[in-house]
Structures are given as structure tokens and as C-alpha cells.
Amino acid sequence: MSASATFDDVLAAARRLDGVAIRTPLLENARVNARLGGRLFIKAECLQRTGSFKLRGAYNFLASMSETDRKKGVVGWSSGNHAQGLAEAARLMGVKATIVMPKDAPALKIANTKASGAEVVLHDRVKESREEIGMGIAQKTGATVVPPYDHPWILTGQGTAGLELVEQAKVLGVMLDAVAAPCSGGGLSTGIALAVKGLSPSTSVHAGEPAGFDDLARSLASGTKQKNDKLSGSICDALLAPTPGDVTFPIAKQLLGPGLVVTDDEVLDAMETAFREFKLVVEPGGAVALAAALTGKLPVKDRAVAVVCSGGNVDHATFARALARRAA
Amino acid sequence: MSASATFDDVLAAARRLDGVAIRTPLLENARVNARLGGRLFIKAECLQRTGSFKLRGAYNFLASMSETDRKKGVVGWSSGNHAQGLAEAARLMGVKATIVMPKDAPALKIANTKASGAEVVLHDRVKESREEIGMGIAQKTGATVVPPYDHPWILTGQGTAGLELVEQAKVLGVMLDAVAAPCSGGGLSTGIALAVKGLSPSTSVHAGEPAGFDDLARSLASGTKQKNDKLSGSICDALLAPTPGDVTFPIAKQLLGPGLVVTDDEVLDAMETAFREFKLVVEPGGAVALAAALTGKLPVKDRAVAVVCSGGNVDHATFARALARRAA
Lengths: 328, 328
Prior knowledge:
The structure is a homodimer.
Chain A: H1 7-17, E1 26-27, H2 30-36, E2 39-44, H3 54-64, H4 67-71, E3 74-77, H5 81-93, E4 97-102, H6 107-115, E5 119-123, H7 130-141, E6 144-145, H8 152-171, E7 178-182, H9 187-199, E8 204-210, H10 215-222, H11 248-255, E9 260-262, H12 264-278, H13 288-294, E10 304-309, H14 316-323
Parallel strand pairs in A: 2-10, 3-4, 3-6, 4-5, 7-8, 7-10, 8-9
Antiparallel strand pairs in A: 1-2
Helix pairs in contact in A: 1-8, 3-5, 3-8, 5-6, 8-9, 9-11, 12-13, 12-14
């Protein structure tokens, strides 16, 4: 498959999402800037509908389908942000959605997905393959499978957040030296790269990953797709895709700078800073790019840098762990 | 003193604050709307510079002073959001600020105020009057006292948040039935009322207060200024002013609907909802209007209602108490 997404596709996605996706704010903090010796901006996608950027790609996908296909519905599998984004996008467009979720997914996530009007099919994580169940539903009903990241319609939808952040920085008179976004399969980071490079070619774009799940960073360094050794074991539950996508990796190779890798403790510290200084609730996976900037792995000194905080769907116990990193 | 502030003054304040105050987002949540049977919007002033709306009034005050007066500096007293807002406004305008703070104020708040470049004068809460110390500094240096709420320049600055929220609702095609904001001395609620009534006369505007500190609600009901019995004892540390202001009360009488009074437990529940559904960090005093909407004291059913979440400067322990109201 060729690198089939362009800057113009991101612009088209932005027109589809106009009035649907929230134009999330670009925030900065004088104290954090003083500490880092530069200007750090947060694109607060945790404030997006459904609590993450995932609505952008899902809605762009549904809006790009033919009317005939939309009538047959959509199907997806996810235990997290993609499920909620897809279910809400389907509700907004009046499309029937079926989401395959593991039986042992948090009750709140299942309830949230149902609350958007989606049909939820529960599966046994150990005995059954959710892909097979989802594909079976698609074959039987004619529904279209909406993948979480590896599709041009998905990644160009996510990229609209990148258009916004460059425009919002420009209003402030700021030319960004670097932009970074969290990365699992690469939909967000490659979409953002298309958008940012289209508007501001000299800005470097980076993907952030949790330590031990840095398949993209290693793939970029080696030039070929690498796999993670593990499928679980990071606090960043949204960023555990095993390897870069077939659609996303060619774009990543062309447009992304070196990857940024952060530890779980650095992520918890970044969540605490987001709480204390920016008044934002950021989930672990949503905070990896911020963590890279705060630790100096993505240098901010004498520069202007924007990081995407991509989601805020964190449970109470995990957020309490982040709060405990620093007493007030 | 006459009710000396007008809608036009709010418009003038908005011009001064353009590019300085963050145009904070107006957020809604499909699940919360479904539960309440209407549309509830949050104006997220917790995302404002310094973590509260206070920057708006302080900056408008400084920008309205004569150049001669600005050169002599400003002085204020506060242990909370006004101190941080005033210090940051002074930094942005290059004005010398002196803030009188209690010796036993949280170290973080003192550090934050100093970080904006303000001179902090510590006083003994029991033995010394901060007003006397502040007035003494003003007399000695010629500095201008910047009051926390009871001045036309302050309340019209705060009112710019009301202009924004009506405009932001209009973009969504929404005419608001009601708007509510937290209230201590009434600067925010009366400024918002001037703005909202100027743009949308049929929208009712309400002030929210903590139980036991509902001086404005009782003053509005009786028609004359009432006092609170206590000076402390609510989790809403930002909302403990003992009585409505001389400038704010005449405007409140003219423009505000009945007051809204909520308990500390209702406030903690609202903070938890802001965390879980809106991904916002809201401090107790900042959540009273939201609490009124979530409990039905401010009806949302079959209506469109906007509440201001006015600040996010909450310590870790208090936020953990809010999280503990509901396990994930």
C-alpha cells in the first residue's frame, strides 16, 4: 500500500469536522515556561468529545464512506478511546455501530460506549479473537470495519488537531520549532505530521512512546518495522500497539524526526504537572509527549514546542497515583 | 456609590483583554446532557492563565489606570486566586506589584505569586491587618490598591468571560436559558450578568454560593445586604467574602435571579464529574455553579444552561477527596 494520504486530505477532513470536533485550546503556562527556558504549548485533546482525539478520525472515516455503505453500519473493536470515539461519531451521523469489547473491560467504558447508542458485543479475551468476531459481523451484515489507526481516512482525521495547533500558535505570533504527539499505531502522529509539515515545513514532528513499547522509535532508527516484545506492562494502556501500521509507517519514515521514549514514572510526573499547572486531566498514554518535553528529551530551552495531550480517560485510582507523586 | 458599570464597559474590557486572556472553551458532554435531559455547557475558566478568571479583572484594572499611576505600582492582598491573577497581570504589563499574604499561606501559593515577579509581604494573620499593611504600602509608595472584586474595572473585566460564553453558544446555534457563576464578593457574577443581559436579555443569570456563606442569596431575597455568620468552615476557600460589595450589590439586585446554594458534598461530587466527564481540574469554589446544575437546583431539563467553572487551583489532598466520592 502506498503512502496514500496527503496534506490536502487533512484539509478536507478539517472541513468535514468543522462544527463537529471541538477546537480544543492551545495552552501555555508562565511558570512551566520559566522553568524550561522556552515556550511549551499543550494542545488539549483530552477536552475533545469522548475525552480523546479519536472522534476526529472516526468521524472523518464515517463522513468519507458512501451513503450506501453508511446505511449498512460500521463495526470496530477496542476496549478504549477508539470505541468511544467511533460510537459517538456514529451517533452524530445516525449510523448503526457495533463495537466488540472484552468481557473484562471496565464497566464504565462499556457503559460509556453503550450510552452513545452503539451495540456492544462482549467477547472472551482468552478464548476468542475480537478481530474474527468483528470481521464475522461485517461479513454477515455488510457493515464496514473501522480500523483504529491504519487507514488514510483515520489518520487524516486525527491530523486536523495538527492544523489547529499550528494556526493557534500563529495567532500568538509563534513559529513552532517542534511538535510531538503520543503514538500507538501511528494514526495521530502521522496525521499531525502531514498537517504540520504542510503548514510549517521547518517544524520537526516527533512521536512519543512508553519505554518497552517503542516499536516506532526503533523502526524509524532501523528503517524497517520493528515489534515490541510485550503486549502489556505499561501504565500507558492506550499505546500498546505491537508494531507500526502499513499505512502509517511509510508516512512516519518520510516525515517524523527521532522518536521520544519515556518511562511510566515520567508519565505520572507529567500527569501531575498537567493537573497542577494546566488544570487538565490527562490519561497516561495521553501524557507521553508532555513527559518528553518536561524531562528535556524533547528540548524546549530557547525554543517553541507544542505537545498533544491526546486523551483524558483515566480511572480514579491511576489519577490518584499521579497526584501522590507530589504533595501540595 | 452608583451602579457605575455598563455593558459597554464590558465590551471595552474585552478589547483590552484581546490576545491576553485565553478564550477558554465552552464544553459539553453527551452523557451528562442525556442524564440531565437538557444541554449543560461549562465555561472552563480553570484553564485561564493563573488557573482562574481573576486575571481578567486584574488586567483590565491595570490597563484602565493612568500611565502615571501604573509607574507607581499596585498593591493587593489575597491568599488565593486574586493574588496570582494580579501578580501575573502586573508582570504582563511591566508594573511593579506588591502582594500582602498571610505567613501561613500554602508555600506553593506564595511561590507562585513570587514566580510572577511580585514582591510578597508576609503578615501575621492573627496580630496584623492585611488591609492596614496594604494601605500603608500604598500611602508610602503611591501605589494603587487593586481590590479583589468591588470595583467597576474589576467586575467588567470578569464579565468578558460572559461575553465569550454567549458568543460561543451562539456559534453552536444555542440560545441560553440560564447562566450561573460562582460568587464570593460578586465581581464575577455581576460582570457576567452585565455581559449576558447585554447580549441576551431573556437569559436568567444566577450566582452560586456554598451553604453557610450564602450572603448574596439572602441579600437578594431580602433586598438588603446580609452578612455570613462565619468567616471559615467551607471547602470553598475562594468564596468566603462576608457580604456583597457596595459596587456589586446594586448590579446584582438589578440583574441576578435567585441565588443557588450548594453543600460541600455536592461541590465534591461536581468536582468528580468535572474530572470524569469533562477532564477538567476544578477547585471547590470553582465548582459551585456546576454543582447547582448537576443537583437540579439550577434546572437543566429541556433547557440550555451554561455554568462558569471559575478556577482550578486546588491542592492534591482536596482533589483526592473528590476522586474518592466515586470509585472507577
